[in-house]
Amino acid sequence: MFASGGGSNLQAIIDHVHTLGAHAPVVLALVVSDRVAAGALARARSAEVPAVWVAKDRSHELGGILERHAITHIALAGYLRLVPTAVTSAYRGRIVNVHPALLPAFGGPGMYGHHVHEAVIQRGARVSGPTVHFVDAHYDEGPIIAQWPVPVLEQDTAESLAARVLKAEHALFPRCIEALCAGRITLGDDGRVHGADALASPQLPA
Ligand code: GRF
Prior knowledge:
The structure is a single chain. The protein has six helices and ten strands, in the order αβαβαβαβαββββαββ. The two termini are 31 Å apart. The protein has a four-stranded mixed sheet with strand order 3-4-6-7, with helices on one face. The chain has a single domain (8-199), classed as Formyl transferase, N-terminal domain (Rossmann fold, 3-Layer(aba) Sandwich). 33% of the residues lie in helices and 15% in strands. The protein is globular. Helix 1 runs parallel beside helix 6 and helix 5 (114-123) crosses helix 6. It is α/β, with parallel strands linked by helices. The structure holds 5-O-phosphono-beta-D-ribofuranosylamine. 5-O-phosphono-beta-D-ribofuranosylamine binds at residues 3, 5-9, 40, 77-78, 98-100, 166, 169.
């Protein structure tokens, strides 16, 4: 997993893998952060997951690091750097991101953290929620795997909306990662996602 921030999604995945037990199709093999003080690195070390700080001017080293750790899949959770194209191409269909709004709205460069939720509220959107998508060479543009809607309420602040969306992220992202690593979700040569119907929101009618 790649993370720049507090790592609550990382924690949700650590907990999910733990719950799955010995038959989990996922082994959390490495946490990478561009920020030496990221809470995600501390959470990884507490869970005895190997953790490395890769400063932004060393991102060209990522490919070698991933190879040395025999990484098969990558999950980005609050990772604020563009992943080098050498990595996104080598991991096509095996690298995913969680974004805290319903893409393709409220995404792209500069749309991270509180900026996303402020824009959603400012625009008057009545629905927001996490999007899990495959990662390509551009911010927030790869094919979408799953989206879980949450309401935007009149009294919401960026903080209250972020908390509601984050709760949905913590339920959705670990399931997506499990399904991806188990081979139940795939990205076709035509750019279409296969196997994602099982990850539709429980709140939506079939
Ligand atoms: C999440 O809201 C995620 O959608 C976004 O950054 C935030 C990361 O939070 N990309 P955390 O570090 O997992 O707590």
